[in-house]
Write a structure and sequence with these properties.
single chain, 2 helices, about 0% strand
Length: about 100
């Protein structure tokens, strides 16, 4: 049982980071798609694009916040995993 507990933080870390990465990637791709549509509207001469500009800015903000969350979670779980791993290593050595 101790072997499984040793790797539990790593499994949690990989699961959470992969879900956050998928979420960020989805939001970022949606932002890029809407940005391209906005550029096409601007190039075609459409003048009523304020709502679309707001949507693109919102999507950019959401994608950026999700990327920042991903970085924070990665750093946090990396620290937790290494502390957990070294604790088990120290405990096994002194057992």
């Amino acid at each position: 049982m101790s072997k499984w507990l040793k790797w539990l933080p790593l499994v949690c870390f990989l699961l959470i980071v992969s879900l956050l990465t998928l979420d960020w990637l989805t939001k970022h791709l949606l932002y890029l798609e809407q940005r391209d549509i906005l550029y096409n509207l601007i190039q075609s001469g459409v003048t009523h694009i304020e709502e679309h500009k707001k949507a693109v800015a919102y999507l950019q903000g959401v994608a950026t916040r999700r990327l920042n969350d991903l970085i924070e979670v990665t750093v946090l779980f990396s620290i937790v995993f290494f502390v957990h791993f070294f604790y088990y290593k120290w405990r096994d050595r002194h057992a």
